[in-house]
DNA sequence: AGTAGATTTGT
DNA sequence: CAAATCTAC
């Protein structure tokens, strides 16, 4: 029985937006005084703490979200600690009769959410969860035999053949007043007290110049991309020196834009047949869906080879200095180095270059993919629990529908092919500014002051990798 | 979503 | 003889 001072509680997590936010929309529709909560949880069992770049992003995204909520009459409550304890306590203090959230798909998070749903049921509180962050929930897409998919193409075909993708919801025009907790509204941590931003040194200058975290930044990025680059996506996405990709990944990671909104905006611009280039972009959203499908059905994707045969793989002993050279962009191979420096400076790396840089670490340096996965987790603004490990396993060949073992990128061939004019290399490697024409792809033939000599011989290290992978095949 | 080496094609 | 195409790993 609802009492007159009953309230609602919306718990936001990886959905830092007002647009197409089913949990928020449902709560707003109730009209009860409403608490909007975000929890920084680094304590619950199994939770993987955010990397440094993601912490920077989260700070700015929450600041933007708080301002957006306030402009509509609401307020963001920030709390830090164990999620289940905080939600239970706050629900009690605010006399919440209804709790709303949008679903998430990692094992530790699902365990917390399921526990809270049980607790709510036992305490007469209505807890409702919604589909908001994936177009297809991982358990709904099944093979003919009833199991999860292990190959991308049939997975995406099955998605496309399944039920229609729902329309996105508009952001609520206004939001209910904040719920009271005893004498006033619930206290909130200050964002600054979470110390998410780097100090001494502040390495975030390049990130701030590159990104606008928050819902407005996400919407602008989506519009800019769909109004131009997407029409030439098939080729444009491979040229790292241009703005040929959407750069939506961190916005999707933090839920500042809904995949349902992206889908609808594409459809709105192409009501008839979807052009091939636009279809390729949509299929990249499909890879995001596939990777979450994989994680849902394989919760230890970040630590365990998807293909158990790889448990016997003989990774090389990578020296501290070799790893540091890769991390710092000092391998002597311009495309790899430009990519690793772009990552360090901006928190992001072009996908074509990610493949080349990851291939170099895993195959030419024969490094366990988990080492690379951890570095990317710490330095990427867009790393999430599914896509980062799934993509590393794809490169290593240990994953589902993975790259074949003999696919070893040649960073010189790749940069000649995809950065022919060297504009990407020049943008991130000052030591190579002076090199003329094609010399920039092979600086050792010209000599460039301050730029390192190649860390390993490409042909030799390639043969070593092929031998190691061959051994695995022979077992 | 690859590379390298061999073979064929085209100017 | 360079570029496009084919093929095995």
UniProtKB/TrEMBL annotation:
Signal peptide start and end residues: none
Return the similarity comment: Belongs to the DNA photolyase family.
EC numbers listed for it are 4.1.99.3
Give the matching Gene3D superfamilies. Answer: 1.25.40.80, DNA Cyclobutane Dipyrimidine Photolyase, subunit A, domain 3 (1.10.579.10), HUPs (3.40.50.620)
Q: What cofactor does this one take? A: FAD; (6R)-5,10-methylene-5,6,7,8-tetrahydrofolate
Put simply, this protein is called Deoxyribodipyrimidine photo-lyase
**Residue spans crossing the bilayer:** none
Q: Which GO-annotated molecular functions does the record name?
A: deoxyribodipyrimidine photo-lyase activity; DNA binding; FAD binding
Catalytic reaction list: cyclobutadipyrimidine (in DNA) = 2 pyrimidine residues (in DNA)
Co-factor: note: Binds 1 FAD per subunit.
Listed A to Z, the keywords are:
Chromophore, FAD, Flavoprotein, Lyase
> Which enzyme type, at the first EC level?
lyase
Q: Which InterPro entries match?
A: Crypto/Photolyase_FAD-like_sf, Crypto/Photolyase_N_sf, Cryptochr/Photolyase_FAD-bd, Cryptochrome/DNA_photolyase_1, DNA_photolyase_1_CS_C, DNA_photolyase_N, Rossmann-like_a/b/a_fold
Domain Photolyase/cryptochrome alpha/beta stretches: 6-135
A Pfam entry, by short name: FAD_binding_7
Instruction: Work out whether the entry's keyword set contains Flavoprotein.
Output: yes
Q: Where does FAD bind?
A: 233, 245-249, 281, 382-384
Instruction: Identify the residue position(s) of the site Electron transfer via tryptophanyl radical.
Output: 315, 369, 392
Q: Which GO terms describe its biological process?
A: photoreactive repair; response to light stimulus
